[in-house]
Fold:
Amino acid sequence: MGSNLIKIDRVSKLLSEVQYLYGGTTDPGTINYLAEKHYCLETSSCKTVLEAVELGMDSQNIYYDISSGATPGEVEACFGKCRYMAGSLDEIKLIDEITARHTSPTQPQPIEIIGIHIVPEDYKPDNHPAFYVHQLAGLAAEFRRLKHISIRGCFVRANLVSESNHMLHGIKLGEFFRACYETAKRITVTLPCGMAFVNMTGVIEALWQNTNYHPETLQGCLQAAEIVKHQNETAFYARLLIS
Structure:
């Protein structure tokens, strides 16, 4: 078992009622383990998406990140087999074009539910393509022109390394949990749209380090996570993901 899965297994004992998202290397044994544990899969590989579907993994649990060099052909090959994640308007337009080609007599105007990568306010970006909260109002009109996609989820991502070169922990990590929820709420109001899933990116590693190196601060983080779970139960009823 790879180190990423070991960390997920350990962190999963800290928080219930969230789903865990694995983003490491895969083989058939890993994919079968993810399905058995009801973990989700994040991948930037078309081949991995197709392999996971062939092995029986639920397409709703496969998140295909097309922001890492996916070709139009690869994106189309995975249509209907995953949830697309996009970090730019061009990528969203590509998904819209692909979806438009998949019309049928029973579904003349198909709608593909997708998610976006987004950086919350007051946080520095990581090195992944993503939208910023302040861009949403300007993009709303662009999104409305796209007739075949519906933005219904987000992967909230940021650089979680502090100025002292340590990952956020304790209350500071808990603040990121809250920022993820607030960012998702801003998306629903600004675009507007529903919210089927929210992923808090980078949190598995941060929680694992919090547990091992700063156990005395862990409770502050977990309390914030519980607040977010309760807020979700009264607002979105979204699938809460941690990666």
